[in-house]
Amino acid sequence: MDMSYSTSAVDEDSQLDYWQRLVCDTFLQLEFERPARPAAGFHGELAAAAGLDVMRVATVTSDPHAVSRSRELIRRSLEDDLLVNVVVRGRVAVEQDGRRADLLAGDFTLYDSARPCRIACPDPFRMVVLQIPRDAFAENGLPRPAAGATATAVRGDRGVGGLVSPFLRALADRGAALTPRTAHRIAINALGLLTTALSDDAGTRTRPPALTRASQLARARRYIADHLDDPLLTPADVAEGLGLSVRYLHSLFRAEGASPLRWIVAQRLEQSARLLADPFQGHLSITDIAFAVGFKDASHFSRSFRGCYGVSPRAYRTRHARPPPARAVP
């Protein structure tokens, strides 16, 4: 039988917190971005279909919100699944690996719990979520979807996507009524259909146009800027996040007389200098700033900073910091 949950079961002041716990307990550990103008209360419903042993299937209906999964959260989590979002109503944007899939009703996309992602739903929405253990494809004789398939929209109004989307939505509506043996067979068929729809030759995926080397370099620099606070960030992480080979990533920076690692360090030092000179960050210690920009060791930070700017971080702060401007009194 289906298991259904609703925020209407708790008082208004507790509804958003209840929804966060419910979604994290059902799917993955996620970080929630609260609505910019939160209304009184928060509406959310989750119906989890039972009986599909190869995968977990649920229908999510909710007010607008966004969730993300950071590299730090991934390190602290045990989940290792592939997930598929099938939009039933509303708009959903899924970002991962430097790509963004903008989905409308009927569209679906794949994302990987082992890599950072963000899912934004700007309107009230309903979608079916399939959570599939990573090994389920191989265990049933099927190829696992390629890494390049993440955050790429499969359109539900054309080609293979038009056939697969209604089938996936029906799993949530009718899966609980199937016998265990039939449900298992249907779930295996769903994996096969997903493999077909997500394959490079299916003709249903909406691919971004080819990027120039300059555009790829700009993407790499932006990715590094967005992940500077990760002390374990490596060129391999950047390449994986962008769907590039490490060799190609190095070639992009080499053409600029740099390397990915040197760029990461340079950006950390530049950001630390901005923080040291910012009067509004005077409450942060030197060590706080070092850790905030991704250095793991305060002594290493101080040596690197001196090597770049010729003075210690403390001397740089003394030389450049100014008191914050006084607020005008009306």
Output the structural class: alpha+beta
Beta content: 15-25%
What is the overall shape? globular
- What is the CATH architecture annotation of the largest domain? Sandwich
Oligomer class:
single chain
Strand order of the largest sheet: 1-3-4-11-6-9
- List the domain count as a whole number: 2
Q: Write down the CATH topology of the largest domain.
A: Jelly Rolls
Verbal overview:
With about 325 residues, the chain is an alpha+beta fold. It folds into two domains: about 5-200, Sandwich (Jelly Rolls), CATH 2.60.120; about 215-320, Arc Repressor Mutant, subunit A (Orthogonal Bundle), CATH 1.10.10. About 40% of the residues lie in helices and about 20% in strands. The protein contains twelve helices and eleven strands. The strands form two sheets. Strands 1-3-4-11-6-9 form a six-stranded antiparallel sheet, with helices on both faces. Strands 2-5-10-7-8 form a five-stranded antiparallel sheet. The longest helix has 19 residues, at about 180-200. It starts with a strand and ends in a 10-residue tail after the last helix.
Concise summary:
By secondary structure, the protein is α+β, with helices and mostly antiparallel strands. The protein is built from 12 helices and 11 strands. The strands form 2 sheets. The chain has a 6-stranded antiparallel β-sheet with strand order 1-3-4-11-6-9, sandwiched between helices. It has a 5-stranded antiparallel β-sheet with strand order 2-5-10-7-8.
Keywords:
330 residues; alpha+beta; Jelly Rolls; Arc Repressor Mutant, subunit A; 2 domains; five-stranded antiparallel sheet; 12 helices; 11 strands; globular; sequence-specific DNA binding; DNA-binding; AraC_XylS_family_regulators; Helix-turn-helix domain-containing protein
